[in-house]
Structure formats: structure tokens, C-alpha cells
Amino acid sequence: DGSKEAFSESKLTRTLLRAAEGLERTIDVPAIIARVRAEMYDQIKTKDIHDVLIMVVRSMIERDPAYSRLASRLLLNRMYGDVFGEGYDQANIAEAQAEVLERNTRRAVEKGDLDERMAAYDFKRLGRAMKIENDNLFEYMGLEIISSRYCMEDPETKKQLETPQMLWMRTAMGLALNEPMEKRHDVVLEF
């Protein structure tokens, strides 16, 4: 939001440890923090610190595949922040996904970027079918490619507008558009 605060190594460490859950034996957290600190500069933005963290972890993938998982989780965390807004409620993420999918689909239809029939879906039903935990199955490069090339983003802000699960759902919705209306939702869910 433009406000300034002192750099917090403990805050960065907490973010890293949360993303490294289950990988603690393999990940060298102090080495990552030291390299991130070396990349810092005065007046760096919070978003840029997170980007530096991802780049540092990405550079360590050669050491162990666990770093690919960690980099993927950090990228996913950034995507979720863009899509759901900072401080999103992880406990109610399924509801948030359905709401965001509906909002972004309707906006894209209004702008003429998506077929108008896309707005006729039951987004609550489709939202409940998405399995956000499957986003964690990505390795870093797979998620980076999905994020940078296939997920919708706001053309002005360049913020992500969808998670990988939303991308798959939007794709299934588009593929099912020519199905009879009474079967359309079932076909989407089958895809």
C-alpha cells in the first residue's frame, strides 16, 4: 500500500518455514535467508522481497528436488495473494475460489474476452468441485509456465486472476459450451 516498514528477517523466515513444511530436513533455511539478505536493497518493496525469495530458492533447485517444491509453494503463495487478495482466509478458500471464478468470468464476458455463455454456469457448484490441494502437485517450472502463459491476468496490473484449479475449470467450461444445457455442468465436472 506504499507504507514503509523495517525489514523483518523473522517475518521472512516464517514465510519460508510455512512454505517448507514437510521439507525441513532438506531445505537450508539459514542459507536461503542469507542469500535473500544479500540481494536486498534500500526501499525494496514487499512484493519484490517475495520475488527475490522465489529467485533464490529457484537457483537452488540443482541441489535437491525439494527446492523445486519450495519454489512452487512460494510462487503459489504469491498467486493466491494476487487472486484472493493479501491476507486471504485459507480456511474458506473453496468459497473464495467460486466467488473469484464467477467475478472474473463475468468481467471477461463483459469485456468480450470470453463467450457470453460462460456466465450461465452455476459457479458455486463448480467452485465446490475444484480441489485446491492439487495446486500443490506442481514442481516449480510447471507452475511457472502455467502462471506466466495460461492463467488469466489483469492486463493493466499484471496480477493473476486465477489459480491453476480455476484455469482447469475455465478450460473445462469452455470445452463444454456446445453440450446441451441440461448436461453441461456434468460434462464440465467430468472434464
Question: Which characteristics define this entry?
Answer:
191 residues; mainly alpha; 9 helices; 0% strand
Descriptive overview:
With about 190 residues, the chain is an all-alpha fold. About 60% of the residues lie in helices and about 0% in strands. It is elongated and about 55 Å long.
Secondary structure category: mainly alpha
How far apart, in Å, are the first and last alpha carbons?
A: 40 Å
Ranges where pLDDT stays below 50 over 5 or more residues in a row are none
Identify the overall geometry: elongated
Q: How many extended strands?
A: 0
Q: Mean pLDDT, rounded to whole units?
A: 91
User: What is the helix tally?
Assistant: 9
Radius of gyration: 19 Å
Helices and strands, in N-to-C order?
A: HHHHHHHHH
- Share of helix among residues? 55-70%
Question: Strand content of the residues, in percent?
Answer: under 5%
